[in-house]
């Protein structure tokens, strides 16, 4: 399969973006949602910041406190000698009691817009576009997808707090102001991608619940009349027993229409946390039906910037654009930077195995 990586990859790196918070550093700019608006390509970047670490024996992290009328940014300091916590994962601080799970994240994420007239060279806005605004977002907002329906853009994103990972929805028409529509999926859920039109009177969304008992982190699909209230949930695509997708699987970019069906570029990880991209084809008239899928990745972490970084061996997409038969995939690499690759629609379709 022909995959054309942009020569200037990665296109955006942490050092390209000044920190928004005082005494913080940007450690990741990745997993951007994508929109086309008034002749520009917009990347809704997930920007991850953490306090500048000044003591090798402690870890600082940032949260937004919503306990008072005015939210307050707080920097917390945890001693590495504290026997209550596990600091081994660079992304999270875990309670050592397994049943208690995550204690804190090591960074605070928000959404910042990058703009381009050619889809390849971007300038980044100085201010955040979406910043934690409710208690459900006190640990950050992450991994947006953008669905255009007529002249409205619906941004679905992970809302993180001590209560878990939920999914929020925001609408905008100008990428200046927006309306919060609330949480559309409760914890733990993520990787939501809403299809860009009604099908037989219903909206459809891919989502990824994370069972804590029976079940696996796999792709489901739901229906809605109004984009806010979702139901009739169905399991859509599961893990393999062995191979590149035996750890977890989730939606990636917003599905787009082809003559063969709705084409979804999704992500999956193996049990060693190596993330790749695959493709699945859904029925045009009933996207809860899987027609075909790739049984091997269409994009794997191979380049140095894809294998080394904050959390290496990761390629992860939240958005694509189409130019006739050309699919331009915008993807996060190693939870650190943004990159671009291009593929032909027909080439992707030729890799599918029909079910």
TrEMBL record:
It comes from the Bacteria. Pfam families: Glyco_hydro_130 (PF04041). PANTHER family: GLYCOSIDASE (PTHR34106). Belongs to the glycosyl hydrolase 130 family. The keyword Glycosyltransferase applies. Keywords: Glycosidase, Glycosyltransferase, Hydrolase, Transferase. InterPro entries: Glyco_hydro_beta-prop_sf, Mannoside_phosphorylase. The keyword Repeat does not apply. Coiled coil: none annotated. Transmembrane segments: none annotated. This is Glycosidase. SUPFAM superfamilies: Arabinanase/levansucrase/invertase (SSF75005).
């Amino acid at each position: 399969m022909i995959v054309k990586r942009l020569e200037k990859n990665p296109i955006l790196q942490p050092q390209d973006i000044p920190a928004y918070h005082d005494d913080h550093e940007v450690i990741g700019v990745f997993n951007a949602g994508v929109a086309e608006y008034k002749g520009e390509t917009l990347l809704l970047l997930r920007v991850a910041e953490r306090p500048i670490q000044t003591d090798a024996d402690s870890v600082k992290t940032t949260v937004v406190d919503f306990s008072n009328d005015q939210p307050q940014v707080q920097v917390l300091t945890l001693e590495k000698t504290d026997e209550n916590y596990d600091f081994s994962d660079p992304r999270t601080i875990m309670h050592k009691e397994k049943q208690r799970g995550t204690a804190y994240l090591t960074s605070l994420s928000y959404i910042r817009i990058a703009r381009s007239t050619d889809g390849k060279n971007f300038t980044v806005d100085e201010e955040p576009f979406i910043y934690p605004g409710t208690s459900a977002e006190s640990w950050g907002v992450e991994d947006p997808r953008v669905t255009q329906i007529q002249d409205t853009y619906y941004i679905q994103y992970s809302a993180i707090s001590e209560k878990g990972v939920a999914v929020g929805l925001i609408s905008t028409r100008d990428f200046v102001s927006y309306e919060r529509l609330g949480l559309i999926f409760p914890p733990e859920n993520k990787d939501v991608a809403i299809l860009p039109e009604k099908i037989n009177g219903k909206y459809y969304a891919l989502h990824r619940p994370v069972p804590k008992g029976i079940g696996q982190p796999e792709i489901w699909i739901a229906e809605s009349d109004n984009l806010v209230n979702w139901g009739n949930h169905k399991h859509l695509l599961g893990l393999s027993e062995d191979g590149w997708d035996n750890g977890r699987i989730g939606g990636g970019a917003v599905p787009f229409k082809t003559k063969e069906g709705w084409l979804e570029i999704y992500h999956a990880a193996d049990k060693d946390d190596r993330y790749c991209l695959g493709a699945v084809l859904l029925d045009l008239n009933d996207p809860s039906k899987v027609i075909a899928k790739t049984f091997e990745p269409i994009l794997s972490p191979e380049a140095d910037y894809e294998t080394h970084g904050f959390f290496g061996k990761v390629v992860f997409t939240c958005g694509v654009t189409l130019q006739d038969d050309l699919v331009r995939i915008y993807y996060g690499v190693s939870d650190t930077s943004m990159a671009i690759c291009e593929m032909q629609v027909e080439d992707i379709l030729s890799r599918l195995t029909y079910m």
